[in-house]
From TrEMBL:
Record-given protein name: Uncharacterized protein
Keywords recorded for this protein, A-Z: Signal
Domain of life: Bacteria
Cleavable signal peptide: 1-21
Length: 135
């Protein structure tokens, strides 16, 4: 029994530590296409949340669920390129961001994150525009 529990804990740590995605919670959902450093992608993602905001995190992995080419990605830097108008976007750690809408705000907001890195196919930077809907 203890051995099975240990295996489950290892799987949980591996699956949460090596992921590239928005941290899914009931109040926070993000959809959009994959991005590729070597193409200097400019993509737009739709994100919906409640007043509690949304956390986004990026980390290198193989077999990334958002990266259909399944190539190893190495993240080198991430910065806030455009601040939201109706909330606050803060960077916590190298590749993690948290968006919190202004108190009482409901409606649309947007912000841009610029993330650079490399993969087996090349290197470059991707511009991720988040169109947020706060319900």
């Amino acid at each position: 029994m203890l051995r099975i529990l240990g295996i489950g804990v290892v799987f949980l740590l591996v699956s949460t530590t090596y992921s590239m995605a928005q941290f899914h919670r009931e109040n926070c959902h993000t959809q959009g296409p994959p991005f590729y450093f070597e193409e200097n992608s400019k993509i737009t993602l739709a994100t919906e949340m409640d007043e509690n905001g949304c956390r986004y995190g990026f980390a290198p992995i193989n077999n990334n669920p958002f990266h259909s080419r399944n190539t190893e990605m190495v993240f080198e830097k991430a910065v806030i390129m455009k601040e939201p108008t109706n909330g606050n976007l803060s960077q916590s750690g190298e590749f993690s961001f948290f968006y919190k809408p202004n108190k009482g705000f409901r409606g649309k907001d947007s912000f841009v994150v610029y993330i650079c890195g490399s993969s087996l196919r090349g290197s470059g930077c991707a511009r991720l525009t988040y169109n947020a809907t706060i319900r």
